[in-house]
Amino acid sequence: MSTPLIILIVLAIILVLMYNSLVAKKNQVDNIFASVDTQLKKRYDLIPNLVASVSKYMEHEKSILQEVTKLRADANKPNISDKQKIALDAQVTSALGSIMIAVENYPELKANENVMHLQSSLNEVEEQISAARRAYNQAVTDYNNAIEMIPTNFMANIMNYREKEVFVISEGERTNVDVKELFN
What we know:
Layout: H1 3-55, H2 62-75, H3 82-103, H4 107-111, H5 113-148, H6 152-158, H7 171-174, H8 179-182
Pfam families: LemA
Coiled coil: 108-142
Family: Belongs to the LemA family.
C-alpha cells in the first residue's frame, strides 16, 4: 500500500470519527432536552389543578394565578423554540414560587389535602426538572466544546451546527435567602 493512500485512509477515518462524535453530541443534547420537555409538560399538566384548588382561597393573588395560567398556555403553543422554552421555564418557576409563598398566608389553604398533594407533586416534578436541567446543561457544554474546539469546529461549521443555550437560574434565585425574614 502506498504512503499517500495510507494517509488518505487515516484522514478519512479521522473525519468520520469527528463527524460521528459531533452527531452523537448533538443527538444527546436533543435527547436530554426531550427529557426536560417531558418534565416541563408534567409540571404544566399540574398547573391547572393547582390554580383550580387555590383560586377560591386566593382572591387577592388573582394576578399571580392569571400569570401562571398565561405562561402555561404559552408553553403549550406548538412550534416554540428551545430558547423560548428555556425562558418560559424560568418565568413559570418564578410564578410558581410566588404561588407557594402566597399559600403560606392562607392557613385553610395550606391545610387543604388537595393543595398539599399538589405541592408535593410539584416539588417532586421540580426535583426531576432540576436533575434533567443538570444533565441537559452538561450535554450542551460537551456539545458547545466540541463545536468550538479545533479541529471539530471546522467540521461543525460545515455541518452548520450552532451553539446551544443552557438553562440558567434567574437573578432572584441567585440572591441569598434571608432566614430571619422567613420567620417574621
